[in-house]
Every structure is written in C-alpha cells, then in structure tokens.
Inverse folding.
C-alpha cells in the first residue's frame, strides 16, 4: 500500500470514528466506541501493526499519519466524555433536591476504656494519699517473681499462679505486680510508699479470668508500720472508690510474701450489704489481697526486719471495673467492640 492510499484510508477511518464518538449518548456507549476504535482489535491498531512491513523511507510519514489519527480519536472521545459528564451534572443540579437543613452524619466519638478509667481513678486516689507511681518489667526472672517473694522452690504456692514461661524457662511473664516491690526495695532505701500498676499474665481463662489482666500493687515500708496502717489505708481507698458508706472486712488468707495475710472484702455496692445476685447473697465482695510484708522478703532485699516493717496489697483492675460497671464477662473488656465501649 502506498502512502497516499494509507493517508486516505486512515483519514476516512478517523472521520468515521470521530462521528461515532460524537454520537455516543451515554458513558457506556463512549466506552464501547473507545474499545472499537482504539482497542487491540480495532482497524487503527491493525494498521499500526502493519507499519513494520513498510519500506524504511515510508515509515516516519506513515507513523505520523497513524499517530495523528489516534490523537484525533482520543480527543474526540475525551471531549464527548466531558460533555456527557457536564450534561449529567447539569441534569442532577436541575432535578435533584439538596436539603441543606438536613443534619450531618455524626462523627464517631472515642471513649476512655473502662480499664483505663479505673486505673486513672486508683492512681489519683493513691497519689492523693502520698504514694508514688512506679512500673516494673513484664518479663521477669523466677527470682523476682517468686524466689525473693518467699515462694520456695517446689513449694505448692507456685501452682497458685499458672505461669507462662519464655526463653526455654529462663524468663517468665510476671504473674503479679508484686515483683515491683523487690525492684523498688533493691533500688532505694525506705521509707517507701509506692503503687505499681501494670499488666500481668497467667494461664487462666473463663468469664471472670483472662490470661492477660491488670493489677495495681501497693506497698509501704518504714519504721513501725503495723496492720492498723494497712487497714486504715485500705479503708480510705475504698471510701474514695465506692463512697464513704462502704465497709471493709478482712479475712485471714495466705500469700507467701505477706504474714499475716488477708483477703479484703467490701460491702456489696449493688445491694448495700443486704444480699443480691452479684454478691451471691453474702453482702460482701472480695476486691484485693493484702498483708504485712514477710520478714523473709525484707531479708531478700537486704533490709533488717527488726528495723523495717511494711504492708502490701494487690488488686485486679478488671475485677474492680466489672463490679463498678456491672460487667459480667471479662472478655468484653478485651474485645474493643465499639457498641460495648460506647456505654461508658
Ligand atoms: C496476687 O496476685 C497477689 N500478688 C496480691 C497481693 C499483693 C497480696 C500484695 C498481698 C500483698 P491474687 O492471685 O489473689 O493475688 O490476685 C489478685 C487479684 O487479681 C485477684 O483478686 C483478682 O481480682 C485478680 N486476678 C487474678 N487472676 C486473674 C485473672 N486470670 N483474670 C483477671 N483477674 C485476675
């Protein structure tokens, strides 16, 4: 084919294409025209493929003719597309009613998590009583988590807290916040008044127990600290947390690191102590463990138990949050379902 015939053919092709583009009456029709005129199977693409067979001298001119046709088709399609879009917009503006007085869609609002709220409240209460806040590592050694807290090797007390071991048993995830007592007493000499909030870990899971949960440890070491100081501190704490009418009750208990030890109950905040479903009709709810720091613990951090005495207590934050907000399944606290969190 000579150049002149090619030029005439392509010109006719482009004119017909431009006519088709202009005639397209909707976005889908424009797309069909685009495929038919510029797609892999179009007449123009076939012509382009034939370029290679032309004599070298004719190639530049033939290429220019084909490119010009392609550009004319692309422009016609783009122009038709813009026309149709503008038409559609004009139509929408004329026919659709936009009510500016309708309210906007509300933005979802974030909330504090109940565990964070309880933690903040506890920190505020205890710093108000003169306690400083300290944190300790979540990955511990057996020495800090057990031995120095007077859990002897092979003692059944170790089974009280099912432990996650890591690094082939060389380390463990702390099962309670009590090891912070050891860190603090090794670092600084008494007097010490410290609370230690943080995450703890146990192989434990049901509706009231989670493998990861939060505790706040509190302890006070000084000269002549006695059980009355412990009881007075806990009473103040409970009054600020649940109101001045709340009573506390101490029941004898056992922890390896305190002697004597007590479980601390508060009068049920749901029934005022009369008995209900939450307190299982006893009128009391257990909220923490406490006691006088065992002399062996003081010795393990090189403090003379004849000179220094102290009290300690530890409570579960999830338990306090569940009682405070009437939550009956601990897992709700960890699922972060916005429908649940929005309640607070
Ligand atoms: C202790 O962990 C002691 N270290 C507390 C302590 C400190 C006593 C200082 C004396 C002096 P216990 O194992 O009872 O004690 O746990 C304390 C609280 O943690 C419990 O009352 C409970 O509220 C909470 N708790 C225990 N296991 C879980 C769990 N798996 N999920 C959620 N909360 C838990």
């Amino acid at each position: 084919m000579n150049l002149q015939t090619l030029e005439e053919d392509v010109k006719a092709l482009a004119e017909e294409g431009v006519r088709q583009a202009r005639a397209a009456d909707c976005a889908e029709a424009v797309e069909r025209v685009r495929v038919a005129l510029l797609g892999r199977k179009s007449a123009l693409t076939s012509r382009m493929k034939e370029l290679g067979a032309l004599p070298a001298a004719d190639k530049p001119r033939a290429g220019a003719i084909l490119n010009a046709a392609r550009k004319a088709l692309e422009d016609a399609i783009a122009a038709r597309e813009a026309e149709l879009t503008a038409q559609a917009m004009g139509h929408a503006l004329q026919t659709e009613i936009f009510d500016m007085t309708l309210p906007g869609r509300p933005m979802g609002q974030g909330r504090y998590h109940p565990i964070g709220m309880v933690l903040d409240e506890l920190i505020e209460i205890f710093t108000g009583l003169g306690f400083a806040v300290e944190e300790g590592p979540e990955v511990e050694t057996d020495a800090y988590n057990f031995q120095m807290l007077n859990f002897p090797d092979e003692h059944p007390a170790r089974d009280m807290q099912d432990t996650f071991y890591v690094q082939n048993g060389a380390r463990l995830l702390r099962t309670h916040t009590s090891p912070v007592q050891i860190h603090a007493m090794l670092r600084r000499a008494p007097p010490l008044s410290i609370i230690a909030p943080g995450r703890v870990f146990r192989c434990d899971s049901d509706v009231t127990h989670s493998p990861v949960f939060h505790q706040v440890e509190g302890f006070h070491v000084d000269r002549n600290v006695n059980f009355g100081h412990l009881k007075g501190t806990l009473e103040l704490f409970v009054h600020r947390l649940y109101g001045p009418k709340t009573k506390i009750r101490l029941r004898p208990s056992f922890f390896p690191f305190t002697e004597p030890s007590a479980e601390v109950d508060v009068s049920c905040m749901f029934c005022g102590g009369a008995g209900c479903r939450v307190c299982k009709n006893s009128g009391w709810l257990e909220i923490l463990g406490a006691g006088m720091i065992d002399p062996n613990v003081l010795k393990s951090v090189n403090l003379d138990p004849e000179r220094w005495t102290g009290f300690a207590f530890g409570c579960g934050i999830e338990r306090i949050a569940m009682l405070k907000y009437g939550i009956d399944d601990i897992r709700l606290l960890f699922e972060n379902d916005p429908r649940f969190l929005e309640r607070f």
